[in-house]
Design brief:
Radius of gyration: 14 Å
Number of domains: 1
Number of helices: 7
Order of helices and strands: HHEEHHHHH
CATH class: Alpha Beta
Number of strands: 2
Strand content: 5-15%
Distance between the termini: 24 Å
């Protein structure tokens, strides 16, 4: 499934929900589906700076695809991580770099997150893109 298809599925899911209370609950539910991070990932060198909540982030590259792991101590942030992992993890680096996260605006997150959560989300996106760029074939 392409990044655009996955992102469109997410947009459709959020469009189906009537109000932001339901959307936040859906986001939190998505976060609960993430596998817990291995303690070996939850070290200071994997801590993502720029997030108000504690976020650990690790990227690996295997078989031409990026594999991302991330987790947070905050439920909504964990849901944001789940959204990003769903779209970007398991994809080739070039595809990741060519697909900015416009779907986040389409579902209205840019208007419904606090400034500190927006900064944290931007930090996560920056980390995802930077790791993809570092592994992309020249």
């Amino acid at each position: 499934m392409s990044l655009a298809d996955i992102a469109q599925d997410i947009v459709d899911e959020f469009d189906f929900l009537d109000d932001w209370e339901d959307r936040y609950q859906h986001l939190i539910g998505m976060g609960r589906t993430l596998a817990p991070l291995d303690p070996s990932v939850m070290i200071d060198e994997n801590r993502l700076r720029g997030c108000q909540s504690v976020v650990h982030f690790k990227a690996d590259f295997a078989d031409g695809r990026m594999q991302y792991q991330a987790g947070s101590d905050a439920a909504i942030v964990q849901g944001l991580i789940a959204l990003l992992m769903r779209v970007y993890s398991g994809q080739p680096p070039a595809d990741i770099m060519a697909f900015p996260p416009e779907f986040l605006k389409q579902i209205g997150l840019d208007e419904h997150l606090s400034p500190t959560r927006k900064n944290g989300l931007a930090s996560m996106v920056t980390a995802i893109m930077a790791e993809a760029k570092a592994k992309a074939p020249v």
